Amino acid sequence: MFRAIRPTGPLDAGAEVDGPALETLVLQELRAINDCHDHRYQIHFWRTQGGLEVDFVLYGPRGLLAIEIKRSTHVERKDTRALREFKRDYPPAQCFIFYGGSATLHMDGITALPLEVALRNLSQLLVCGNSNPQAMLVNSPSLRATKLLG
User: Fold this and answer.
1) Are 118 and 99 in contact (CB under 8 A)?
2) Is 134's pLDDT higher than 60?
3) CB 51 within 8 A of CB 18
4) DSSP output for 124-137
5) Which of 35, 31, 28, 34 is nearest to 2 (CA)?
6) Is 72 helix (H, G, I), strand (E, B) or coil?
7) Distance between CA atoms of 81 and 23, rounded to whole angstroms?
8) Which of 1-8's residues contact partners 24+ apart within 8 Å by CB, and which partners?
9) What percent of the chain has pLDDT over 90?
């Protein structure tokens, strides 16, 4: 859909187009699940004066979720900087990175999920909110942690 609305031009780099396309896809899914199941999350983004940014902040009766989208196949600690800052300002938040890799990772209180797994389990993630995120990970084989990074 994104490509139909905004076709790639000769001066566009793939990363400049693919990143917003992934963010748009995730936003579409977040809104659809949120509205369909009446979760009543408000969907925002977060940006600091210094330029740190979190793509999606969901706030509602089930809690506070922060989601960063990365098209990269690897997640490093530097990729969690904005989410770490967000979590410092909002300690109850559950923070996630959806990325192009294949392993579920945990680092600095942030869960990194492969994009395919995250989208497939997005409804469950929104249902759990802040109520019991660890139970969500334990009860879903595709969301179980496979690696801890420090």
Assistant:
1) no
2) no
3) no
4) HHHHHTTT-HHHHH
5) 28
6) coil
7) 18
8) 1/28
9) 66
From the CB of residue 104, how many other CB atoms can be counted at a distance below 10 Å? 19
The Cα 93–Cα 57 span in angstroms is: 9
pTM, to two decimals: 0.79
What stretch of H or E contains 116?
Answer: helix 115-120
Is 2-148 assigned to CATH 3.40.50? no
Q: For residue 31, what are its two tokens?
A: 């809104």
Q: What is the pLDDT of residues 23-60, one digit of tens each?
A: 999 999 999 999 999 999 999 999 999 999 999 999 99
pLDDT, greater one: 67 or 21: 67
The CA-CA-CA angle for residues 46, 145, 63, to 5°, reads: 35
Residues 6 or more apart in contact with residue 110 via CB below 8 angstroms: 80, 83, 84, 87, 95, 96, 97
* HSE-CB for 2 with a 13 A CA cutoff: 14
